[in-house]
Write a structure and sequence with these properties.
Growth Hormone, Chain: A, 419 residues, mainly alpha, membrane, transmembrane transporter activity
């Protein structure tokens, strides 16, 4: 394979990752901003947060299995087209009239449902696009693109809100997905070729899904880590769902200040990305995940106790860095101990279970904020999440090594799971 083609593949891969991810990050600012402008209601912001996150729960456990049955290429193209069409419809409504709130709820659900499927399949397709020896570089580029979009996404959203307005911003987001359609086209041959072989598999979707479920349930270290992530995501859901409301309503700040907070979080994520490999040399994977969850709670606690913008930036940075450290460690931990034949299904179930806390905590937060301040809600959530992790850290659970987890995995494969 010549050097020019390698450069072309990696360049297209970076563009295919960066453009839809930056569109996602801008959308995450644009939609709550729009809901606030139309309703000035924390309740409706919480409802939209719930509606947009539910698809990740419903679709995640089956997307990986679907990818084994149908063409990666077709799934990616269809989901991109759905996102483009949904966003274009929102833009059309905003430019010509004021859309009913139920229309935004419906389109938000559709757009995020297509996005959930797109990213599961996109990640599953990475080993198809690149050779085994290229995967480290490819995954590093993927994580770097994700972190970079966190750093600049809110800045771009704030700039576009100020320069072209929220109405035309959705038009820009829509065409980002339209451009991505053309970036995926060069990969059609390799993606289609793989799935001709996968179609020979005879297991049904239900059977394949339950294999991943059984594996996670009987692998106690993996199961406990998933529960801890579930607890952590309750705090994350409360934080993210009410951040715009905190900035605009409680503190009376605007897009620029929100941008500063998001940039601080993005820079912290990038730093965590750099140092997490060194931390894994000092701590077991399990211990590092527990520590990360504690610091996640500390970051939320800081944002609940203080109103100074600089301190809010520090709290958000601590929380974001801890989330990245946990996610990288957790992903690596699963890749080390879970057989490749089960990894997709395990990942799908893990994402479904963990993400289930996200929308419901955001929805409940929208209701609670009508009774208490966002700061008090952040404080209570942070304290409870830290307390929930302490028993795991004080036990011998934190000392489980990757090798011991691998031994448990082998035993489960022999006794419980047929691949």
């Amino acid at each position: 394979m010549n050097k020019e083609f390698l450069i072309s593949r990696f360049t297209l891969f970076v563009l295919g990752t960066f453009i839809p991810k930056i569109a996602d990050k801008v959308y995450l600012v644009a939609m709550p901003w729009l809901i606030y402008e139309l309703t000035h209601s924390s309740f409706y912001m919480g409802v939209m947060f719930l509606i947009e996150t539910i698809p990740f729960i419903l679709i995640s456990p089956i997307s990986g299995v679907i990818a084994d049955k149908f063409s990666y290429y077709k799934i990616l193209m269809i989901t991109l087209a759905i996102q483009f069409t949904g966003l274009l419809t929102i833009a059309a409504f905003l430019i010509t009239s004021v859309p009913p709130i139920w229309v935004l709820f419906l389109l938000g659900f559709t757009i995020c449902g297509a996005g959930a499927c797109y990213w599961v399949v996109y990640n599953t397709a990475i080993p198809v696009i690149f050779k085994k020896e290229e995967l480290v570089k490819a995954n590093s580029l993927f994580q770097f693109s994700d972190t970079l979009t966190v750093i600049i996404g809110a800045s771009i959203a704030a700039f576009l809100i100020k320069s072209i307005g929220i109405n035309y911003l959705f038009l820009v987001i829509a065409f980002s997905f339209f451009i991505t359609l053309f970036i995926i086209i060069p990969f059609k041959s390799s993606l289609s070729h793989l799935n001709k072989n996968l179609l020979k598999k005879k297991e049904g979707l239900k059977s394949e899904f339950y294999q991943g479920l059984i594996y996670v349930y009987y692998h106690k270290p993996l199961f406990y880590i998933t529960i801890i992530a579930l607890i952590g995501n309750i705090g994350n859901g409360v934080l993210v769902s009410m951040l715009v409301y905190l900035i605009r309503n409680d503190l009376g700040l605007g897009a620029l200040e929100l941008n500063y907070i998001y940039v601080a979080g993005g820079l912290a994520e990038f730093i965590a990305l750099i140092i997490v490999s060194r931390l894994l040399n000092k701590f077991t994977s399990v211990r590092l995940m527990l520590i990360s969850q504690v610091f996640c709670g500390i970051g939320i606690l800081i944002m609940g106790l203080f109103t100074n913008l600089m301190i809010l930036m520090i709290g958000f940075a601590i929380q974001n860095a801890a989330v990245v450290a946990y996610n990288i460690t957790n992903r690596t931990f699963r890749q080390k101990i879970v057989p490749q034949e089960l990894l997709g299904r395990v990942n799908g179930f893990n994402q479904m279970l963990v993400r289930s806390a996200f929308p419901f905590s955001g929805f409940v937060a929208g209701i609670l904020v009508s009774m208490i301040t966002v700061g008090n809600l952040y404080t209570i959530t942070a304290i409870l999440s830290i307390i929930a992790v302490i028993p795991f850290y004080l036990s011998s659970f934190k000392n489980i090594s990757d090798e011991e987890a691998q031994t448990i995995s082998n035993k489960i494969i022999e006794d419980k799971v047929t691949m």
